[in-house]
Amino acid sequence: DTGVSQDPRHKITKRGQNVTFRCDPISEHNRLYWYRQTLGQGPEFLTYFQNEAQLEKSRLLSDRFSAERPKGSFSTLEIQRTEQGDSAMYLCASSSGQLAYYGYTFGSGTRLTVV
Amino acid sequence: DAKTTQPNSMESNEEEPVHLPCNHSTISGTDYIHWYRQLPSQGPEYVIHGLTSNVNNRMASLAIAEDRKSSTLILHRATLRDAAVYYCIPIYNTDKLIFGTGTRLQVFP
Prior knowledge:
Largest interface: A-B, 26 and 25 residues
Number of strands of chain A: 11
Distance between the termini of chain B: 38 Å
Number of helices of chain B: 0
Distance between the termini of chain A: 35 Å
Strand order of the largest sheet of chain B: 1-9-8-3-4
Order of helices and strands of chain A: EEEEEEEEEHEE
Helix content of chain A: under 10%
Number of helices of chain A: 1
Oligomer: heterodimer
Structural class of chain B: mainly beta
Helix content of chain B: under 10%
Shape of chain B: globular
Number of strands of chain B: 9
Strand content of chain A: over 45%
Structural class of chain A: mainly beta
Largest sheet of chain A: 7 strands, mixed
C-alpha cells in the first residue's frame, strides 16, 4: 500500500468550469476526509465520510461543492462553476478509526488554480 | 475546541536538537495532543501523539507537562528534511483536525 493517492496533482481551469478530484484512501481505512488549504494558512475541514456515509459537512462546503464515496472506497470532490476564490490545495486524508487514537494519513493534495 | 499557541517560526542548525513548544492551557482532561508537520508542497504528516506520559517514536519525542497545559515536540537531531510547518492539535471525541498557523522550522546546514 502506497498511502493516500490524489489525482490530479495539479489542475488549472477557467472560471465557470466544473472540476472533479479523486482520492484513493489506504485500503483498510473506513474514514475519509477532505480539507482545503489556501496559501499561508493551515488546512480547513470540508467534509468527512465513514464508509459510504457522509457524516459531516463544513459551512465552507457551498452548494457548488459535492463529495461522494460510492461503495466506501475512493472518493470524489466536484466543484461546479469554479470561482477564483476556489483556488487552493485540496487535501484528502484517511483513518482506520477514531482520530484521537489513530491520527490521519494525508495525501499530497490536488492544487487547483482557477484563472 | 482547545486553543493552542505556538511560536510563528524557529531556527535550528543541522544535527542539533530542536524543541518546539506548544501552549494548550484550555485543554480538557481527555484531549490527546497530536503533532503533525507539513513539508513544502506536501500534505500534512502525522508525527506523534500522547495523552499524559511522554512518548517516543522513530520521528520524535513528545514531552507533556504534568499539568498538560503545554507540550514540547523534540527532534533529537534536526536534518534539512525536518524543515516544515509543525502543528500542535489537541483532539478528543472529534473527527476533525483544527489546524492553527503552526511553527515554521528552518534548518540550516
